[in-house]
Amino acid sequence: MAWDYSEKLKDHFFNPRNVGAMDDADGKGEVGSIACGDALTFFIKVDPKSKKIEKATFKTFGCGSAIASASALTEMVIGKTIEDALKITNQDIADFLGGIPQEKMHCSVMGREALEAAVAAMRGERRGPEVHDEGAIVCHCFGVTDQKIERAIRENNLRTAEQVTNYTKAGGGCGSCIPEIEAILAKVREEESKKAAPRPRPAGKMTQLKKIALIQETIEHEIRPVLQKDGGDIELVDIDGDTVHVTLVGHCAGCRSAGFTAGWIQDKMRELVSEAIVIAFDETEGAAS
Q1: Residue 11 has what pLDDT?
Q2: Torsion over CA: 130, 134, 140, 142 (sign)
Q3: What CATH superfamily classification does 137-195 receive?
Q4: pLDDT of residue 287
Q5: 139 part of the active site
Q6: Which of 64, 97, 102, 230 could form a disulfide with 9 if both were Cys (CB 3.0 to 4.6 A apart)?
Q7: Quick one: CA dihedral 261, 267, 268, 270, positive or negative?
Q8: Per-residue pLDDT at 164
Q9: Catalytic site residue 36?
Q10: pLDDT number for residue 199
Q11: Catalytic one of 107, 139, 177, 252
Q12: What's the per-residue H, E or C state across the chain?
């Protein structure tokens, strides 16, 4: 499979910055493992007067995206206080590189985790490659816990098991943990839907014209933007009373988590339009991609 790498990512891969061990590091963080295919050690040195990171280096065993992500992170943290450095997200690393292929986003996550591990070591907190994240192991192939999966879902607005694999590697081995990953996805989405302040449904009886307008508004402003973030989309086919016929296109068509997406769309329609709404999926020629 060929992935589209930005010029900046390729530059950081072919010409990585700040490579090597640091003997006098204030903090050293190690994440991943060679057995899992990716391992990263991140070193930081903090100026005692300014309290800013004056030096950062790394050593890694991994793919081009892993090398580029670690190289980029060294440049991003130098000159920052520890507090500001810890605000850097994996998406910030990806943006700094001009984007990372979705299938390689776990490399940017690993970079952020290595920085956090280095800071924890500097502060004397017990954390190392032999210590798993808190929580129960979900993916035994790669040692990924439920809490790591939940964090990736919340921080990156993930909606499918495939995306979780891209960001954490969970499910990328034997695949037996996919059902548990999907259960975690459903749990997080349910919690977030309860926290969100819902737009109240119109009071009183709606005319069919009003209902159609509200359905279209919900698709345009609540549903389509979420699907488009993941490379998918939705097409309104027809409205027959309370039955809304739609088609999923792009990455959403034929997705392993299409059932979860369907339930989420129907819940959103019932929340914002009418409790009687039923979503019906129609297939159109060429919908899958």
Answers
A1: 97
A2: negative
A3: BFD-like [2Fe-2S]-binding domain (1.10.10.1100)
A4: 40
A5: no
A6: 97
A7: positive
A8: 94
A9: yes
A10: 61
A11: 107
A12: CCCCCCHHHHHHHHCCCCECCCCCCCEEEEEEEHHHCEEEEEEEEECCCCCEEEEEEEEEECCHHHHHHHHHHHHHHCCCEHHHHCCCCHHHHHHHCCCCCHHHHHHHHHHHHHHHHHHHHHCCCCCCCCCCCCCCEEECCCCEEHHHHHHHHHHHCCCCHHHHHHHHCCCCCCCCCHHHHHHHHHHHHHHHHHHCCCCCCCCCCCCHHHHHHHHHHHHHHHHHHHHHHCCEEEEEEEEECCEEEEEEEECCCCCCCHHHHHHHHHHHHHHHCCCCCEEEECCCCCCEC
- Name residues of the chain where pLDDT drops below 50: 128-132, 285-289
CATH 3.90.1010.10, domain 7-122, yes or no:
yes
Give the integer Cα–Cα distance in Å for 174 and 144: 13
> Range(s) for CATH 1.10.10.1100 in the chain?
137-195
pLDDT tens digits for range 205-220:
788 888 999 999 999 9
* Chain region(s) in the chain for CATH 3.30.300.130: 208-281
